[in-house]
Request: fold
Amino acid sequence: MPEKRVGPDAFLPVIGARAGDLPSSMLVVGDPARARRVAEQFDDVTDVARNREYLTITGSYRGRHVGVISHGVGAAGAAVCFEELCRGGVEHLVRAGTAGGMQPHVGDGALVIATAAVRNEGVTSQLVPLGYPAGASVDKVIALRRAAAAAADRLVEEGVVLSSALFYPHDVLGGDLELWQRAGVVAVEMEAAALFVTAALHGVEAGAILAIDGNPLAEHDDDMSGYDPDREVVRDAVDAMIVVSLDALTAGD
Reply:
């Protein structure tokens, strides 16, 4: 067991929860509103904690004690959340988030299962050298793949995602999305690399599934002025992603 694990009575100061109140399996999502949306799938819902952007809710799904926590936008704050969850004894983590498609065929409404992440998020380089891979747990990839097989009405893609520190591009340095597209990266988001590296350093299993809410390269929307995640096609994809992620998180029980 990693040395930094704490006892069940320990208080995790940033997420504001007691370690013993956390289930062993949790979803991590960016938006507190999405955490509420996930909790609609739970029985026996309990609000465990709310501090800053971190909303923690637990309940049961298919008879298993599970939870969800929001981590906000960007890897720095998310990494604090992931670290405290791992220290608190969580053993299984799945990120259910949104992302931009990077390949021409990965567009609105698609689901992407991340097999690994490019470490361009600015945080994990301070944890371990960049030669260390940010890989999803094999068992989580398989569980997500099996659960996503039921989402037959939409594209489900697997592959490497780009975890970027930058959301809105600027003209000074420009972006490098075209480079990563040529390298075969399938989607861009902000937190998966931090999750995979933090989890690996703690011996925790982690995976990620992402609902695509646009494709900046296909749309040639260089300044993201046309970005609109609040569309029916995205809402439907997020609903499908939530079910897939919960099914994968509880697979084998």
Summary: The mean pLDDT is 93. The radius of gyration is 17 Å. Helices lie at 32-39, 75-87, 138-148, 177-182, 192-202, 216-219, 232-249. The domain at 11-249 is CATH 3.40.50.1580 (Rossmann fold).
